[in-house]
């Protein structure tokens, strides 16, 4: 028997007790004659106690009934929330599949794009810049500009070192010339396969992909700070998924810790005033990533 049923039965039992007590009292009056005042008062007090107990049991029954109703409503709310979460998960799964298809399509487009070289003036400027600074290398065959992360950032950080800022400032001046300003700038961050473990690193960069993306953004911010238009800069992070050299057993491979820049001709429609519009690039892709081309 449930608690609700028990609560419903108790008042009925109490009423029966009162009825029985009243019947016995009446019988006593008829059979035994008059009762004493003390006996009458005792019977009345007993009846009052029973009535109070009946009220308590009634309230208890009503409380249990409300609790059961609330629980049923809560169960229904949980079922509705579970159904909503299932629907949301299905929608997110569809979104992820669509993004994977877009990424695969973009990778196919990148693989088909050839590199015909930068314009002579920009190529010459980048060769001279790479010769001046150890932090940077330039590969004319692919147009890849690479910054060694160990020289560009403190370990586990996306704060650009002062020495690397000097190189990036000079690079920004090249990218702001009439020739260098005709390119879009794709910035890619890369790491080795060692997972972040320092609590200070994990607080801001919980995975290698986060760290690589944040470093690419930091390089882009330095260029923007030197006047390079934000509309020309595109950033992303590959983490450890595009190593330049095979990772060791420990994953500690300095050559894989790098930030790479690729210059792609800006073919966007020109807006009023001669400046390129912010419309997405049509049929334009960056050169193949470093894993598909030799390092300098």
Topology:
Elements: H1 3-32, H2 37-112, H3 120-132, E1 136-139, E2 144-148, H4 149-152, H5 162-174, E3 183-190, H6 199-204, H7 208-225, E4 233-239, E5 258-265
Parallel strand pairs: 3-4
Antiparallel strand pairs: 1-2, 2-5, 3-5
Helix pairs in contact: 1-2, 3-5, 5-7
**Secondary-structure element string:** HHHEEHHEHHEE
Strands side by side in the biggest sheet:
1-2-5-3-4
Helix proportion: 40-55%
The CATH class of the largest domain, by name, is Alpha Beta
The pLDDT mean sits at 81
Question: What's the name of the CATH homologous superfamily of the largest domain?
Answer: OmpA-like domain
Overall shape: elongated
CATH topology of the largest domain: 60s Ribosomal Protein L30, Chain: A
Question: What structural class results from the helix and strand content?
Answer: alpha+beta
Q: Any guess at the CATH architecture of the largest domain?
A: 2-Layer Sandwich
């Amino acid at each position: 028997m449930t608690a609700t049923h028990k609560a419903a039965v108790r008042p009925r039992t109490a009423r029966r007790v009162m009825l029985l007590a009243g019947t016995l009292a009446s019988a006593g009056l008829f059979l035994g004659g008059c009762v004493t005042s003390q006996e009458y008062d005792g019977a009345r007090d007993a009846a009052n106690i029973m009535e109070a107990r009946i009220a308590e049991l009634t309230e208890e029954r009503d409380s249990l009934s409300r609790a059961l109703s609330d629980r049923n409503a809560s169960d229904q709310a949980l079922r509705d929330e579970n159904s909503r979460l299932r629907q949301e998960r299905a929608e997110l799964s569809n979104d992820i599949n669509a993004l994977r298809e877009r990424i695969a399509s973009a990778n196919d487009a990148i693989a088909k794009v050839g590199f015909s070289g930068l314009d002579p003036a920009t190529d010459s400027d980048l060769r001279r810049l790479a010769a001046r600074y150890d932090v940077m290398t330039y590969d004319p065959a692919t147009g890849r500009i690479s910054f060694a992360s160990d020289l560009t950032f403190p370990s586990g950080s996306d704060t650009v070192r002062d020495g690397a800022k000097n190189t990036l400032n000079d690079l920004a001046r090249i990218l702001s010339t009439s020739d260098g300003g005709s390119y879009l700038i794709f910035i890619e961050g890369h790491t080795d396969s060692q997972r972040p473990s320092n609590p200070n690193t994990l607080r801001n960069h919980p995975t290698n992909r986060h760290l690589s993306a944040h470093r690419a953004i930091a390089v882009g911010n330095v260029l923007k700070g030197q006047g390079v238009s934000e509309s020309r800069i595109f950033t992303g992070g590959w983490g450890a998924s595009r190593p330049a050299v095979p990772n060791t057993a420990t994953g500690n491979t300095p050559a894989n810790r790098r930030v790479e820049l690729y210059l792609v001709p800006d073919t966007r429609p020109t807006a009023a005033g001669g400046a390129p519009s912010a419309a997405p690039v049509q049929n334009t892709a960056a050169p193949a990533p470093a894993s598909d081309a030799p390092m300098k």
